[in-house]
Specification:
heterodimer, A: 11 helices, B: alpha+beta, 13 helices
C-alpha cells in the first residue's frame, strides 16, 4: 500500500480540473472551453464529464450542488473530499442515477459518460448502473452466500453458463483480493465475513458485472486500519482496469491512493487538480485550511 | 478473463417484468381501495333490500326424504317466502301443489307486503311427495310470473321404531328431574288408530296416558310438549331405577290391542350418566329398536371423525367443521396473500412518482389501518353484497333462475315412472325447464343408464317394464343438478368461496400491515446495493427484499389466517348458520368450527355444551399449531440469514 507513485500524465494539467472555480465561464458549453488546457484532451480519456451540474433535494427546496463542472479521467482514481454535507455523495449518486429513486431529488446540468448523456430521460438507468458500479460506505453484502453475492449481478445481466459463472466469480474475487480467504467457504453466508472482507466482497460484486466506472462512497470509513489498507491497495490495483471515483473523509487516504482530488465545500467545487498539488500546494485558502486540518 | 456482454434482450425482458409487477402491485392496492369504497357504500345504505341476507325465492329447496330443509319450518306446512317478488299493487301470489297422483290444487295465497315481497304459508299437506310452484297474478287475474316447480317430500313421520331423544331425556332426569324434549314415536298398524302411552318410574311417578293418532304411513308421534310433566327425580337415594313405558294401540273400532311395554333403565348416579337401554319386543306395534344409548362421554376418535353434529352428543363430532374451516382458510389464504403482499410492496417499494398515483398511494396507506379496525360483521355484510349477490349486477337469484353464469354443471329432469321409480333425464338446454315426453329417451335410474319407454296405455306391462315406462305426454321439470368439482357460478351465492373471500377481506389489512413492517425492516443499503448493480426494482424486491422480509411476512400472514379461522361473524353473515357437509365444489356451503361451537353452545342439551367446549379446545389447538408454524418458519429463516 501507499506506494503511490505520482504517475504524472503529461496531458493532465491542473487547470483542467480547476475549471469550476469559475463555472459560469463554461455555461455556454464545450465550445467555450477556454479554461481547458492548451492541449485538449481526447474524449476517450475522459470517463465522466460533468458540466454545470446543479442538484436539489426536497423538490428544489434545498440545493446541494451548485454548478459543478468536473471531469474524471479514465483509469485514474479521483478522490472527492470535503466536510460532511458538502454534496460529494450526492454527486456520486447522480453519476449512476441512484438518486432517481429518492423522492424529491432534482438535478440539472450536463453529466456524460463518453457519448452517453447520463441524465437524459432516454438513458436506461438500469443498464447505466451496470456500467457504473457503486460501493457504499457500509459493507452491505446480501444475506446470501458469498458465491451468490458475486453471482447476483452477472445472473441479472448475462446469459451465462454455470461454469462461466464459476469462473467469473473466481475472477472477481481474485480481483478483489478475497479469493484466497473465501475460496473454501463460497457457499457460506456472506454475513459471516469480517467488515473488511465484506467490503472487498462488495467490490468483487461490483466488478463482476464489468463496469467501466467504479464509484466508491467512503469505502473504508467503517473499516479498521488493516482492512482499510487492504481495500486501499485494492483500489490502487483496480485503477488499471476501471476509472474510480472515491468519496473520502480521510485526507491521508485521499493522498495515498488517488491521482486527482476535488475539494467540495458547501455544495461548491472549491478546487481540483492533481492530488499532490491539492494537498501540497493548494490554491484556495479553504482548501488549505481543510487539508491542513484547521476545520472539517 | 473473458468479458461478457450484457444481453439486451434480457434487459428488455427484465424491464418488462418490472413494469408488469409494478402494475400488479398497483392493482393489488387498487383492490384495497375498492374494498374501502364498497365498505363505505355498504355502510351508507347502498345495501338495498335486494341485498338482504335472505337468498332466493320460495325457499323450498329440493331435498329428499325429510321435511327438514331450508324454509320448511313446520313439519307439514311449508312456508314459502317470495323475497324479491316485485308484484305491482293489487297482485297476489298463489301456491300450487301437485301430489303424486297428479292432482293439482292451490294450497295457499297471499298479497305482497309493503316492500313487494310475499310470505305465504301453505295449508297443511299430508305426507307424500309434491311439486310446488307459485304463480303471481295481477289484479285482473293475468299471470305475471310462474316459478319453476320444486319437488318436496313431506314426511312428518319419525323413522320406524320408537324413537327416543334419549340424550335429552337423560340430561333432564338428572338435572331438573323432568321428562321434557322427549320425542316418542313409532309405527302402528292402521291409519287413524290411536296409541296410548304411559310412563311410570320406580319411584311411583307416572305420566299418561298420552294419545297419538296413527297417521298415513302408519306412523305416530307424541309431541314434545305433552311430555313435560313427568318428574323422575329420585325420592330416595336410589341411584338405579327404571322407567316403564307402556304403549297400547286401539284399532278403529276402539278395541284395545294388547299392551306393549319396555323398561328403560335409569341411572341417576351422576350428570350425563343416565343409561337407557332397551327395546320393545312386540312386533304387533312395530317398535323395533331404540337406536341411541345414552350420554356416554364421546371418545376422541368419534369426536374428531364423526360427520354428525346434531344427533346425540355422543355420536357427534367436528369433522365437517374442521375440514370446512380448513377449506375456508385455504380460499382465504389464496385470495389474501398475493393481494396483501402486492399491496405492501406497492406501498413500500413501488412508490409512484406520478402525482395522481402518489395521492392514491397515500390514500391507501392512510386507510389500511382504518380497514383493520372495521368490525368483522361489517365485512360480513360487505361479503354478502359483493360476493353473494355481486351488487345484483346480474339478474337476482330467484327460485326459478339458476345463477346467470355457470360453469361445470349438468341439469336433470326428474320424473316418476309408472313403476314408481324416480329417474332422471339429462338436460341439454337449461332454458327449457319443462319437457313433454313423447318418444323413448335415455334416462338414468338406480341401475344406471337405460331407455325410458313412452306408452299410451299402461295395461299389459309387466312389473319390470313399468319401471322403465312413462305415459305419453308426461311432463318433467328440471329439479336436479349435478355439479362437477370445478363448478363455478356468478354470482357466487351462499358459498364457501364467498365466505372465504369475505374472511380474506377481514384479514387483508392485517396481512398488509405485517408485510409492510417486514418489508420496511429490510435495510435500505441492501436495496441500494442491488439497484446499484443494475437490478430493476422488481428484481430487487424479488431477490433481496422479499427473501429478507419473508419471515416477517409469514408470521404476519399466519397470525392473520389464524384470526380468519376463528372468525364467526362473516361466515354467519355469508353462509348463515348452516352446518353443511364437506363441500364438493367452491359453490357449496361448508361448515366452520366457530359456527359449530356457536350451535352447540346454544343447544339445550348439556352434552352438547361439553362438545362445544371440546371444539373450542380443538380450535385453540389449531390456532396454537398455526402460530407454532409461524414461529418455526421465522426461526429457520433467521438462522438461515446468519
Amino acid at each position: 500500500m501507499g506506494n503511490k507513485a505520482m504517475q504524472t500524465n503529461e496531458k493532465t494539467e491542473t487547470q483542467d480540473m480547476a475549471v469550476s472555480a469559475e463555472p459560469q465561464a463554461l455555461a455556454s458549453g464545450d465550445s467555450t472551453e477556454s479554461m481547458v488546457t492548451a492541449e485538449p484532451r481526447k474524449k476517450a480519456d475522459i470517463a465522466i464529464d460533468i458540466q454545470n451540474l446543479n442538484a436539489w433535494y426536497n423538490h428544489c427546496e434545498f440545493q446541494v450542488l451548485h454548478d459543478i463542472t468536473l471531469r474524471f479521467e479514465k483509469n485514474k482514481v479521483a478522490a472527492l473530499i470535503g466536510p460532511s454535507g458538502c454534496g460529494k455523495s450526492t454527486l456520486l449518486r447522480w453519476i449512476n442515477r441512484m438518486n432517481d429513486v429518492v423522492n424529491g431529488a432534482v438535478v440539472e446540468g450536463g453529466l456524460r459518460m463518453g457519448d452517453l448523456d447520463i441524465l437524459a430521460n432516454t438513458t436506461d438507468a438500469v443498464d447505466l448502473r451496470r456500467r457504473i458500479g457503486i460501493v457504499f460506505q457500509k459493507p452491505n453484502p446480501f444475506p446470501k452466500s458469498i458465491y451468490d453475492n458475486v453471482a447476483f449481478g452477472p445472473r441479472l445481466h448475462f446469459n451465462i453458463s454455470k461454469s462461466e459463472l464459476d469462473e467469473l466469480v473466481e475472477w472477481s474475487l481474485k480481483k478483489a483480493a478475497l479469493w484466497e480467504e473465501v475460496k473454501d467457504r463460497l457457499k457460506k453466508s456472506a454475513l459471516g465475513l469480517s467488515g473488511g472482507q465484506q467490503q472487498r466482497l462488495c467490490i468483487a460484486r461490483a466488478i463482476a458485472v464489468g463496469p467501466e466506472v467504479l464509484l466508491m462512497d467512503e469505502p473504508c470509513s467503517a473499516l479498521d486500519p488493516s482492512s482499510t489498507s487492504k481495500v486501499e491497495d485494492l483500489i490502487y490495483e483496480l485503477r488499471e482496469q476501471y476509472s474510480i471515483v472515491m468519496v473520502t473523509h480521510n485526507m491521508q487516504q485521499a493522498s495515498r491512493c488517488s491521482d486527482t482530488t476535488a475539494f467540495f465545500f458547501e455544495g461548491r467545487l472549491i478546487e481540483t487538480g492533481e492530488t499532490v498539488d491539492v494537498f501540497g500546494n493548494p490554491k484556495e485558502k479553504q482548501t488549505e485550511d481543510y487539508v491542513s486540518g484547521k476545520f472539517g | 478473463m473473458k468479458s461478457f456482454d450484457a444481453d439486451s434482450r434480457k434487459l428488455a425482458n427484465r424491464k418488462l417484468i418490472d413494469q408488469l409487477f409494478r402494475v400488479l402491485c398497483l392493482l393489488a392496492a387498487g383492490m384495497v381501495v375498492l374494498v374501502l369504497v364498497i365498505l363505505i357504500g355498504t355502510i351508507c345504505g347502498s345495501a338495498t333490500r335486494s341485498l338482504t341476507l335472505e337468498t332466493g325465492l320460495p325457499r323450498l329447496v329440493n331435498d329428499t326424504g325429510t321435511s327438514r330443509y331450508d324454509g320448511v319450518t313446520c313439519e307439514n306446512r311449508p312456508r314459502i317466502g317470495i323475497l324479491q317478488g316485485t308484484g305491482p299493487a293489487g297482485s297476489s301470489a298463489t301456491i300450487y301443489a301437485e301430489d303424486e297422483t297428479g292432482k293439482q290444487r292451490a294450497v295457499g295465497s297471499g298479497l305482497p307486503r309493503g316492500d313487494g315481497s310475499f310470505s305465504i304459508t301453505c295449508e297443511e299437506l299430508v305426507d307424500g311427495g309434491y311439486q310446488i310452484w307459485f304463480v303471481i297474478t295481477d289484479s285482473d287475474g293475468n299471470e305475471l310470473e310462474t316459478s319453476r316447480p320444486i319437488r318436496i317430500l313431506i314426511d312428518t313421520l319419525p323413522p320406524a321404531g320408537l324413537e327416543f331423544d334419549v340424550s335429552t331425556l337423560g340430561d333432564r332426569i338428572l338435572v331438573e328431574g323432568e321428562l321434557s324434549s322427549f320425542v316418542v314415536g313409532g309405527r302402528g298398524i292402521e291409519q287413524n288408530a290411536r296409541v296410548e302411552l304411559k310412563f311410570q318410574d320406580d319411584q311411583g311417578n307416572s305420566l299418561g296416558p298420552i294419545e297419538a293418532k296413527i297417521k298415513q304411513g302408519s306412523g305416530w308421534r307424541i309431541p314434545k310438549t305433552n311430555l313435560q310433566r313427568l318428574d323422575t327425580r329420585p325420592a330416595s337415594k336410589k341411584q338405579q331405577g327404571t322407567l316403564t313405558v307402556t304403549a297400547t294401540q286401539h284399532d278403529l273400532a276402539g278395541n284395545a290391542q294388547p299392551d306393549v311395554s319396555i323398561d328403560l333403565k335409569l341411572d341417576r348416579s351422576g350428570a350425563g350418566q343416565a343409561d337407557l337401554v332397551n327395546t320393545f319386543k312386540d312386533d304387533r306395534i312395530d317398535l323395533s329398536a331404540l337406536e341411541i344409548e345414552t350420554l356416554r362421554p364421546t371418545n376422541l376418535e368419534t369426536f374428531l371423525t364423526s360427520h354428525h353434529y346434531d344427533n346425540a352428543p355422543e355420536v357427534s363430532g367436528i369433522f365437517r367443521a374442521l375440514v370446512g374451516s380448513m377449506f375456508l382458510c385455504i380460499v382465504c389464504a389464496m385470495f389474501t396473500i398475493p393481494i396483501g403482499i402486492g399491496t405492501a410492496i406497492f406501498l413500500e417499494d413501488f412508490r409512484p412518482k406520478n402525482r395522481i398515483l402518489r395521492l392514491f398511494h397515500s390514500f391507501v396507506q392512510l386507510n389500511i389501518s382504518n380497514l383493520a379496525g372495521v368490525p368483522s360483521i361489517v365485512y360480513g355484510i360487505l361479503g354478502v353484497t359483493a360476493f353473494v349477490y355481486m351488487f345484483n349486477l346480474f339478474p337476482a337469484r330467484t327460485v326459478d333462475s339458476r345463477p346467470k353464469y355457470e360453469f361445470g354443471t349438468n341439469y336433470f329432469y326428474q320424473l316418476e315412472t309408472l313403476g314408481g321409480q324416480y329417474v332422471t333425464i339429462p338436460c341439454t338446454d337449461k332454458q327449457k325447464t319443462t319437457i313433454e315426453l313423447t318418444e323413448p329417451i335415455t334416462a338414468y335410474g338406480d341401475e344406471g343408464e337405460f331407455t325410458l319407454n313412452v306408452v299410451d296405455s299402461s295395461s299389459g306391462l309387466s312389473e319390470d317394464e313399468r319401471y322403465a315406462t312413462v305415459r305419453r305426454g308426461k311432463k318433467a321439470s328440471i329439479v336436479d343438478s349435478e355439479h362437477h368439482w370445478y363448478y363455478l357460478s356468478v354470482p357466487f351465492g351462499k358459498s364457501f368461496l364467498a365466505a372465504g373471500l369475505t374472511l380474506g377481506l377481514v384479514v387483508l389489512p392485517i396481512i398488509i400491515i405485517a408485510s409492510q413492517e417486514a418489508i420496511r425492516g429490510v435495510p435500505n443499503s441492501l436495496r441500494e446495493a442491488s439497484m446499484g448493480m443494475g437490478a430493476t426494482k422488481w428484481q430487487t424486491v424479488r431477490n433481496i427484499v422479499l427473501p429478507s422480509a419473508t419471515p416477517g411476512i409469514m408470521t404476519g400472514t399466519i397470525l392473520a389466517l389464524s384470526r380468519a379461522v376463528g372468525e364467526a361473524a362473516p361466515i354467519l353473515a355469508v353462509m348463515g348458520g348452516v352446518l353443511a357437509v364437506i363441500p364438493k365444489n367452491l359453490m357449496e356451503n361448508s361448515s366452520a368450527l366457530p359456527i359449530l361451537i356457536y350451535k352447540w353452545a346454544k343447544d339445550a342439551s348439556r352434552g352438547f355444551h361439553s362438545l362445544s367446549a371440546a371444539a373450542i379446545v380443538v380450535l385453540l389447538l389449531l390456532l396454537l399449531a398455526m402460530n407454532s408454524v409461524a414461529i418455526v418458519i421465522r426461526y429457520r429463516a433467521e438462522r438461515k440469514g446468519k
